[in-house]
């Protein structure tokens, strides 16, 4: 089995920071100490750098059908881009076709990843509704396939939205099999009325995307999902939380002792409604759901990340090309929802979080790796630098300057929402199970080397 | 025109209390002063008594179809019972049949009341959904017919429940025509799942009615309705609010300056879940929706009445005979929902509110007459003792003791939820537009003397 | 006894609005009706006008010593100005000299008013501390002299400030005699440190008055006073509440059912910190404590007035001449604290409250007359238009335009904080106990006609 | 330098859990790996056990004068008992005599510890007031002596209590030198009045200690301290928080992003007001300040520990013998305040926290070691198992059963508040800087081996 030695770095975990060398054997961390002088197949010098657990991105949409098009990255390009950004594990969403069984959807997504993924991956399962066999399928996925989390949508009527009765039954079903329920929390019914009214008034520009999905619709749905999860007595994870009003509901629930968790995404931290007013169709680049919010919301989210009520930063990576975005030229509701982000998550969060003094490097590790790994049943294999854990490591130069640009980033999409932004701090080298996959900007990985991860039950708060 | 003189009483309004005689001419209050010595067709001596504005009950269900049966009081018996309790105005609910137009439903209810009502009455209109002509009908009812309030249900799936999109569109429609939206706030979807699970487990007794409609389902729906009303920019009235958790949402909304109003009912103030545990089918007598709650909820409601966040006490009078209640002998979900209350409202509230020191007589008048009259566009014709107002008056003996019992009460139903309870304070005489309709327990009114009230836009908080 | 007739007006009380003539006999309202044709000594035509209860201003400082100077209005000029503004009752503060007994201070203030006051008046008593005889004096003042409210200061260390132990003992003492405790809620200790630091840095301009008394110091003291009153089990009235943060504490306390009341003043509704930046010493005109706040605070106060958590609008009238204000030319802490307002309260509140649609005319009456009269034991003699109440009446032209200016106002002070502001709505005639004291801008009253009011226990919320 | 090897244990840190051997050299952790086979002076087998960072107890009162007596443990007995309980670092409080300089007090306490302490120790400094040299002394202690935290009391008038101005100035002073301010948050003024009233009524039994220090007095003082710290722009640490109401203020402050931290103590988690009703003088054993609270408070504190708003569990160890406690036989206010706890903290918290499923072993480490070490500037030397950290280690048997009893515990006090309670989980061996000081219940340490710790600035939340 190949061995590796990462020398002279400062190891940072979610609770520690210390100078040490790491010796890797069989893809796992075998020895931690100073001045280790063991022979190794690979030796990396991390002088002047930090050594972090590889990032864990628990919200991606690779190779996902979306109406007449699909998300622009598949598992090959998407996972490679992830690795370039320091992320070594993703959890993607399998979504059944209407009428398709969960197990069939799981197989479909397994096939999408097979032979392509360059880093390790797992799956959540989306639920469009609850049929006769759904409960049994949920149990089987949880028990046998390591798919331990299920997502429902309170938005997108006629497509993915479920009604409250279905959502509540899904919560009860998840409780039965010990799975975690994820919610896309927006009130799709209200939004639908607002969208139709806007279009009827000729309000077709991208900025009406945000105006027809006001924060109150997200806050309401968040509160409703929490109320139902509390009634069902089962944990809840609120994905891509975007605004202060929704966060307030999460915080209140947690103070009452409820098992409620939440994630936000970098775009909600760095971008705002102002971006929708960019000229021409440029605003379409920022169309995702929930939409971008105000700077006061950004502040609240940063406080939530620092203070503990937001435990996960994920990307909701769902890129569409500018050509795809142009489908909504005359009607914002036809712009495919989503934006690229899988590669830039850690750089943005380091720059805005750690460098700006909002939180320390330990919290950064918690938010990008340890927290999501624990919540989604990947820890301690992932998200940790500890003897026995997978040697998913990032050698991180806290001072490296990067100018974000579509041209130099590795996602398969022809724009970046952060085009031109300069961030400090980024990965110099990335190891997946002890193998160097990125080395000073050079790709060393290969498609198909990524392994499917059967996840355990996540470590949620007591319900 | 006949005249009347009410002498020697203490007049109590929502803000005043003073000794004076009242002279009535043409059904209206003409003169207020001490020692009035005008000749009058009728002279009432109110010595030792208070003179209050006649009660305004804005939530009744007379002659209402309910599955295989109907509510036990029609407009004749119901309005007579109301008058016996000191209530001189009601606002009942017209509910279209599935597919029926609003205007047709209005006509139906007008016919139900015609020739029967012994006191004045108005109508709210219930909405089952929104068809193509609904908006126009709402506008016409509001403008031409004095039906200025519309009610929607977030409970009773498959029967009356509307989804969020419909509710939101109704709010926008009400805003358009300046009408007030009323909401029955319970999450019907969640409740439906809970009911089915309970029945599947063989939990069929009346107490499961309460256990399958937990306060969280009401609180959630209340919060959701408020959120949607805020988004629509239009006032909301929460009917029959029953629990502390829902009240907290109303209070928070009002503190934020929203135009949110709420009513509660006497049964939520005096009865509790303990009543469901009465032997045999006796618990069925207390089956209404929302169900009875805990004593801590009662305390919160009393505080809300005293402190201002609850502005209306109405009855939700919807009596069913014990034979009807027995339909649910083997299945609580088949018990017709509702209880009698139209006659006992003011006696109960005086005893529990004023006599217990929770609030003063002015607040009592506000809650039972002035507040509802203002909110529903009946003021100052109703709900006031003022020159020019209708002489709807109650001569109220604050010390009179009454033992509540089905046998002596006048509602057409064979039980009382308060059977045997002794209350102090009650009406000695009741005048409707200057005519004595109740005099020391004797009925002086007659069917058909009641007039339909075209209501104005209510005085809601600024939205 | 002289009689009067006010004809053709629209009477507005805290709960009613109706067209009627009022007949006054013996200083009291004797008869209310339409088309009254009784002979009367005085006949006033109120056509096109409202007839309101005379205003009740429960926070004034007339003839008050203040360091080397004193407030510019005495009981003659102050009460005359009050009447010109529609106010017919004041409650002023008697403040003992250090070491002086409460009874002696009461006598002092009785003498100040005697022969001078042109409208009726009562007194609160300020407490500098608690001596051996204080409890007995409080009991006697409450029982025998109609001084039923006591005020303590949590600000002004070394002058009026009491420590928490003293404040708590005073609350217990007030509870003992059924009196109401008033609190000036600012954290004087913290403010004192901030003031000294500012001065040490050379920050001497008026605007540092506001910067050294930040809203947090008021919010903290408000919360503390509420906590102590709750522990003592006795009602509390927070005077001159100025900011959203303090109001939030009051609102939360009331929602918990505590007997907490609060007033604000017109200057907090219409002026803001921006006024401190006026050129030269002009900012000194706005130096009062608490200081002016931000416009967001104004909004919160208006909502509180409309929604019920603020029940009283008083003036804290405490005028100082520009010469007096100039004492603080080089040191903001030497500017005498206070501003004129006794005359402009009702005009400002009508314009900003009723005309702006923030609340209706009934609420205006509640805030300016009925509410304060009830809370401070003057009702129903004052604050009501009802048979038997004092005929303190204002004939109010809702459309009359007034340009506020020191020159035309009647307070004995050479500036107005509202100089040049145009308000609509104002008194045409003012009656005190049936006597016309102001008639179309002409003074008809006389010094000394005002009577001392022995107040009852106020109608506070249940503690 | 001596070396040590801890083999076959499961290492638990605040974020990780893994099986590994630890090799210790020069008192520090040198190597972490599985199957380490290096020679070592000491070899410990941790099979079946966890290996935790040594506990850090940041709130102790050893050898402290208290009126006519002193706390029963000195630095020899106290630190030995600490070690027996798994605690390897304490931070004690140096308190100046009235008039004594801070530096002199520091010297006094250094002498108390010297030659006696068996584990490492640091000092906080208490402030009785602010003299002319205090700021300079604070700066010197922080910069030169590693005393980076200062404590003030809002309770104990006439003894330790400071007024708000002093507290605020101390906060500003602490901000100046980057120190952390600690607050004993009870409203001493109010309590003093309550105590005197109780005694005057003959209420002398121990339970009146709790009744005269109601939770509201703690909640109020907590809110006040937070408000002042926010105004001063400096972090605050609330020591020995005991009740839900105070915790709610801390939680709200943290949600607003304030740098507020809080600790609780085991007695507030396991004991309650019921203990004051024990027969005879037994209730005196539980007299400490704040007093014990209700079980609902316990629940809130456990939630706070699990959820993050409580970050530290410390002991407030301040034991008095039963003879000392008996001083208050006829007057609860003369019972010396305090109870033993330095030895039982970790056993109780493991049993009640981890075994009961309220939080996991990582959170236990965070609360007992890593959190306090970080907050008080001891990390990463203390509170961590990481290469380079002090080898302060506890070999912890998660299943070991201990019956708590004064006789077998090692604190120099003749009772235990937990007498007879059986807890599972406890230390098998304890290492301080690589030296075994406790081995299977046998004392291997020696007085004087403990070192004084110069602390850095703590890692507080951004202010």
Give the arrangement of secondary structure elements:
The structure is a homotetramer of 463-residue chains.
Chain A: E1 3-12, E2 17-25, E3 28-33, E4 42-45, E5 50-53, E6 55-60, E7 65-66, E8 69-70, H1 75-84, E9 87-94, H2 102-113, E10 120-126, H3 134-144, E11 149-153, H4 164-177, E12 180-184, H5 188-200, H6 207-211, H7 215-232, E13 236-238, H8 244-255, E14 260-264, H9 266-270, H10 295-307, E15 312-313, H11 322-325, H12 345-355, H13 361-375, E16 393-403, E17 422-432, E18 435-439, E19 442-443
Parallel strand pairs in A: 1-4, 1-5, 6-9, 9-10, 10-11, 11-12, 12-13, 13-14, 14-15
Antiparallel strand pairs in A: 1-2, 2-3, 5-16, 7-8, 16-17, 17-18, 18-19
Helix pairs in contact in A: 3-4, 4-7, 7-8
Quaternary form:
homotetramer
Helix share of residues of chain A? Answer: 25-40%
Rg for CA atoms of chain A: 21 Å
Q: On the 0-100 scale, what is the average pLDDT of chain A?
A: 97
Poorly predicted ranges of chain A: none
Task: Determine the most extensive contact between two protein chains.
Answer: A-D, 41 and 42 residues
Output the structural class of chain A.
alpha/beta
CATH superfamily of the largest domain in chain A, by name, is Metal-dependent hydrolases
């Amino acid at each position: 089995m190949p061995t590796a030695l990462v020398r002279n770095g400062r190891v940072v975990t979610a609770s520690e920071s210390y100078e040490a060398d790491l010796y890797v054997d069989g893809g796992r961390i075998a020895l931690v100490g100073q001045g280790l002088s063991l022979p190794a197949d690979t030796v990396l010098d991390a002088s002047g750098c930090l050594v972090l657990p590889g990032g864990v991105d628990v919200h991606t949409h690779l190779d996902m059908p979306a109406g007449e098009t699909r998300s622009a990255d598949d598992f090959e390009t998407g996972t490679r881009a992830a690795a370039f950004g320091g992320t070594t594990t993703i959890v993607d969403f399998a979504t059944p076709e209407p009428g398709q069984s969960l197990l069939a959807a799981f197989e479909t997504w397994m096939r999408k990843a097979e032979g392509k993924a360059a880093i390790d991956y797992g799956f959540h399962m989306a639920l469009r509704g609850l049929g006769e066999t759904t409960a049994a399928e949920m149990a089987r996925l949880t028990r046998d396939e390591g798919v331990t989390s299920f997502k429902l949508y309170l938005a997108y009527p006629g497509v993915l939205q479920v009604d409250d009765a279905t959502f509540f039954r899904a919560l009860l079903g998840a409780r039965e099999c010990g799975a975690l329920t994820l919610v896309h929390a927006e009130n799709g019914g209200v939004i639908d009325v607002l969208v139709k009214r806007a279009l009827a008034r000729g309000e077709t520009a991208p900025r009406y995307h945000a105006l027809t999905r006001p924060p109150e619709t997200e806050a309401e749905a968040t509160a409703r999902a929490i109320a139902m999860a509390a009634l069902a007595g089962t944990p809840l994870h609120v994905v891509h939380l975007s605004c202060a009003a929704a966060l307030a509901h999460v915080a209140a629930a947690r103070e009452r002792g409820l098992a409620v968790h939440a994630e936000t995404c970098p775009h909600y931290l760095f971008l705002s409604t102002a971006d929708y007013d960019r000229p021409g169709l440029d605003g379409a680049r920022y169309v995702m759901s929930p939409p971008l919010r105000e700077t006061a919301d950004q502040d609240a989210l940063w406080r939530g990340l620092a203070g503990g009520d937001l435990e996960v930063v994920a990307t909701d990576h769902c890129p569409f090309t500018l050509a795809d975005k142009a489908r909504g030229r005359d009607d914002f509701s036809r712009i495919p929802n989503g934006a690229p982000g899988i590669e830039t998550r850690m750089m943005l969060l380091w720059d805005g979080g750690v460098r700006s003094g909002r939180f320390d490097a330990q919290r950064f590790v918690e938010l990008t790796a340890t927290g999501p790994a624990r919540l989604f049943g990947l820890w301690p294999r992932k998200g940790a630098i500890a003897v026995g854990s997978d040697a998913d490591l990032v050698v991180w130069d806290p001072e490296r300057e990067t100018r974000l640009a579509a041209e130099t980033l590795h996602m398969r999409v022809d724009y970046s929402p952060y085009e031109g932004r300069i961030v400090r701090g980024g990965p110099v080298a990335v190891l997946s199970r002890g193998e160097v996959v990125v080395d000073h900007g050079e790709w060393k990985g290969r498609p198909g080397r990524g392994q499917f991860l059967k996840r355990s039950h996540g470590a949620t708060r007591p319900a």
